[in-house]
Amino acid sequence: MTLARIEARFAACAAENRAALVTFITAGDPDLATSEMILAGLPAAGADVIELGMPFSDPMAEGVPIQRASERALKAGMTLKKTLAMVERFRRVDSTTPIILMGYYNPIFAMGVDRFLEAALIAGVDGLIVVDVPPEADDELCLPAMKAGIAFVRLATPTTDAKRLPSVLKNASGFVYYVSITGVTGAATPDFDAVGAAVQRIKGSTRLPIAVGFGVKTAEHARAVARAADGVVVGSVLVEIVRASLVDGKATEKTAQLVHDQVRELASGVHSARTIAAE
Amino acid sequence: MTIQGVNSFRAGPDERGHFGQFGGRFVAETLMPLVLDLEAAYLAAKADPAFKAELKHLETHYTGRPSPLYFAERLTERLGGAKIYFKRDELNHTGSHKINNCLGQILLARRMGKTRIIAETGAGQHGVAVATVCARFGLPCVVYMGATDVERQKPNVFRMKLLGAEVIPVTSGNGTLKDAMNEALRDWVTNVSDTYYIIGTAAGPHPYPMLVRDFQSVIGHETKEQMLAAEGRLPDALVACIGGGSNSIGLFHPFLDDRDVKIYGVEAGGHGLDVPDGHCASLSGGKPGVLHGNRTYLLQDEDGQILEGHSISAGLDYPGIGPEHAWLKESGRVDYVAITDAEALEGFKLLTSTEGIIPALEPAHAVAFVTKLAPKMRADELLVMNLCGRGDKDVFTVAARLGVSM
Q1: How many helices (H) and strands (E) does chain A have?
Q2: What pLDDT digit, counting tens, does each position of B291-325 carry?
Q3: Contact B26 A58 (CB under 8 A)
Q4: A219-228 vs A192-203: helix axis angle to the nearest 10?
Q5: pLDDT tens across B122-151, in order?
Q6: A-chain residues within 8 Å CB-CB of B34?
Q7: Are A181 and A195 in contact (CB under 8 A)?
Q8: B323 touches chain A (CB under 8 A)
Q9: Helix B125-137 and helix B98-111: axis angle, to 10°?
Q10: Residue B324 to residue B12: CA distance in whole angstroms
């Protein structure tokens, strides 16, 4: 499966003439059991692809919401090993929803790249987004992942100019993640017209699907992005719902349900984007 | 020393920013074009005599370089061994070696047409130096400082504000230097077009470790000349304290290929290397990993999560270390040792009472190691220690440790 699972899902969404909804949650936030409940219910709520954040102590590209989610998960005892085990349990009941692990290099490096890739493959991980490993360091993780059959999803940003784009796309696989703003996750709201133009520009250089994230907060934003892109990534809003649901720092019965409700709403935005645009 | 198969210790980094397996450019895609631009701008500046001349002029007339090489006669007598010299970088304008790097980088920022400066700081020495050069060149300055450090380094916070900088307390993590660095990187990724990030130590993504080292190497070059003038030969041993490693690499680098010169880097041993998360000795107590743009030795747990560490000195309170030091450790060229909080405090008191110099707590670690090393050396041997900062900023911390209320 792996790479094939990602391709199949984007193809299926394209066949329905809609963008894929890519939802990000942090593994182990606010605790492992609640996080597993959230993860388990995402596909039914409308998530087409799942990005699962690997908590890290120093998430340099994240805004406050995902920083705090990472802190909550680590405080509750989350580790990379437990994240992989979480994916493995998810795979027993869902064999079609792609899972992309997203995070930073050091926990992977600490486990050992080969050991990590082997465990990820067994667990049923389909792709990786590792923020601090640029194309210049492809031999570190990207090439070994490709060899193992795990997609290495590249980030393209507003600073990725025409000169640089080919090196970013060279070993990209699965899909391309277009970062809609210069900034951290969950901060500014992008200029959706500029995002559309950027997606078209990248599409001129690759056949991979383009998903857009950073700053997508509402169903309306999701709808705007979904008109131009093949995928819409939403993350900070979901971990903020986790945070807002906590009582004395603990999850409640409603935590998972509140996240799923929001995903349903975002999915409706994504699903209606092109039908409304066509009217 | 296990130095084999290396032609020169001064050849690094390679074109991808590596010192052996260490260094590199582990940054988010948004920042990648920026660090590539910075590298090109730096290499152009380095080859430009006008850039060198402007920096030299400022070093002479603004910083007060060269800093003296001072023979510490009373301390030498007291310890009874090697002849001890101090490189007096605490006499620089702003009170530490940090100004050497800040002047170089602000000239670079101006060449690149950048109009806004950001920086991280721990103890506040780098923040003060950045705020100083920003005032000197009329550029707006934002300094990120861990909320814990803002609280324990109030005099420096006030200095930065007087100099016109905006000091932003960082509350994520434990609110110390590494968190401030994360926040500065987040600012940079947000303000890519107009902002220059002045990193304070010889760490971070390539080309920072190289360019900070080059700007700090004025320390070692002067030391070489001054020692030849004073003694007619090179020293037998060099000693400097290490947090991120900028003052030490500045002293060491010009001497790396003088293989008869023994070199010692002194890390912060905090409560002791055997106390979990109780020290900041990345080389002696950490293992290789990737953080803040480079691969280097890091204090981390089994899962690769970065630890906070502890040191009495806020300037050494960083869980990583410059990548060139990581390589110098592995190649065996430099010996890295650790000094505890308690030993550093003794060093602080000893230097103050024997030489009338109040050192910062950072070089007080180096002083403490000198008290161990010098007596084992012969009286005709020469030792140079970099006295990289003055201790005014630390008198409150020291008073509290000595149980004195001020």
Answers
A1: 12, 9
A2: 999 999 999 999 999 998 899 988 888 999 999 99
A3: no
A4: 30
A5: 889 999 999 999 999 999 999 999 998 898
A6: 159
A7: no
A8: no
A9: 40
A10: 8
State pLDDT tens for residues B57-68: 999 999 999 999
A277 in a structural domain: no
B364: nearest Cα among B262, B268, B227: B268
> Is residue A170 situated within a structural domain?
yes
| Dist. CA B298–CA B320, nearest whole Å | 5
Establish if B78 touches chain A: CB-CB under 8 angstroms: no
CATH number, residue A41: 3.20.20.70
Cβ atoms of residues B264 and B337 within 8 Å: yes
Reported as a single tens digit per residue, the pLDDT across B155-174 is: 899 999 999 999 999 998 88
CA–CA–CA angle A160, A170, A83 (5° rounding)? 85
Q: What's the confidence (pLDDT) of residue A275?
A: 77
Q: Give the closest of B26, B34, B298 to A132, CB-based.
A: B26
Q: What is the CA radius of gyration of chain A?
A: 17
Could you tell me where the beta strands, DSSP code E, fall in A104-179? 127-130, 151-152, 154-156, 176-179
- Kind and range of the H or E run holding B121: strand B116-121
Domain total of chain A? 1
CB contact under 8 A, B29 and A109: no
The separation between CA B53 and the C-alpha centre of its own chain, rounded to angstroms, equals: 24
Give the pLDDT confidence score for residue A276 in this predicted structure: 61
Write down the pLDDT at residue B1: 45
Evaluate whether residue A279 is within a structural domain.
Answer: no
Task: Name the token pair of B150.
Answer: 């803002």
Q: Which of B22, B29, B36, B199 to mutate to test the interface with A (most CBs of A within 10 A)?
A: B29
Instruction: Let me know: does A70 contact A62? Beta carbons within 8 Å.
Output: yes
Q: Are B32 and A154 in contact (CB under 8 A)?
A: no
Q: Give me the domain span that covers residue A209.
A: 3-272
Min distance A145 CA to chain B CA atoms (Å): 17
Residue A213 lies in a domain: yes
* B177 min Cα distance to partner chain A (Å): 12
Single-letter amino acid, residue B366 = A
Chain B residues in contact with A160 (beta carbon < 8 A) = 29, 33
Best of A106, A157, A165, A214 to disrupt the B interface by mutation (most B CBs within 10 Å)? A106
CA distance A43 to chain B (A): 29
- 8 A C-beta contact, residue B188 and residue B195: yes
A132 and B293 in contact by Cβ < 8 A?
yes
Distance from CA of B324 to the nearest CA of A (A): 19
To the nearest whole Å, the CA of B33 is away from the closest chain A CA by: 7
Give the tens place of pLDDT for each residue, A151-202: 999 999 999 999 999 999 999 999 999 999 899 998 888 898 999 999 999 9
pLDDT for B153 equals 86
Distances (CA, A) of B303 to A110, A228, B199, B376: 6, 39, 27, 41
For A79-103, write each residue's pLDDT tens digit. Answer: 999 999 999 999 999 999 999 999 9
